[in-house]
Amino acid sequence: MWAAQALADGKRLALPRVNHHTNLLDLYWVEDLESQLARGLWGIREPVVERCERINSLNEVEFALLPGVAFTRDGARLGYGGGFYDKLLAGRGGEPRPTLAAAAFALQIVERIPLEATDVKVELIITEQGTIACPG
């Protein structure tokens, strides 16, 4: 698992959790995957709030791996409809943003997707066929 490998390599691991009160993503530092994660909505393991340190500033995060259904070569991302990552990454008042990347299968790369003004693009897309550096 990539998360276990990141921790084994001595990296700090930040994972998201949907805050159902604010309908936003909160980020938490996770050091132990077994004791600090639990199955949440849709069976996805997420940080247990009482066992993790909440991240207060996105500038503490250097690299973010974003999920998506489809991507374009210029970095546009079609998510799963909640806008959680777009809201997390938008409106940070000039605060530096982490490098934004996505892991996808080559078949998820499409010519165009519907975009809204609030959509945040990724800088890199990593597929089984190689890495796409998105113009930015």
Report the order of strands and helices. Answer: HEEHEEEEEEHEEE
Number of domains: 2
In the CATH hierarchy, what is the class of the largest domain? Alpha Beta
**What about the largest sheet?**
4 strands, mixed
User: Which shape, going by the Cα principal axes?
Assistant: globular
Bin the helical content.
10-25%
Share of residues in strands: 25-35%
Low-pLDDT runs:
none
CATH superfamily of the largest domain: NagB/RpiA/CoA transferase-like
How would you describe this protein?
β1 and β2 form a beta hairpin. The protein is globular and about 45 Å long. The two termini are 30 Å apart. It has two domains: 56 residues, no CATH class; 79 residues, 3-Layer(aba) Sandwich (Rossmann fold). With 136 residues, the chain is mainly beta. The mean pLDDT is 92. It contains three helices and eleven strands; from the N terminus they run αββαββββββαβββ. Helix content is 12%, strand content 32%.
In short:
The chain is globular, with a radius of gyration of 15 Å. The two termini are 30 Å apart.
Topology (elements, then pairings):
Elements: H1 2-8, E1 13-19, E2 24-30, H2 33-36, E3 37-39, E4 45-47, E5 53-54, E6 63-66, E7 70-71, E8 77-78, H3 84-89, E9 99-103, E10 124-127, E11 130-133
Parallel strand pairs: 6-9, 9-10
Antiparallel strand pairs: 1-2, 2-5, 3-4, 7-8, 10-11
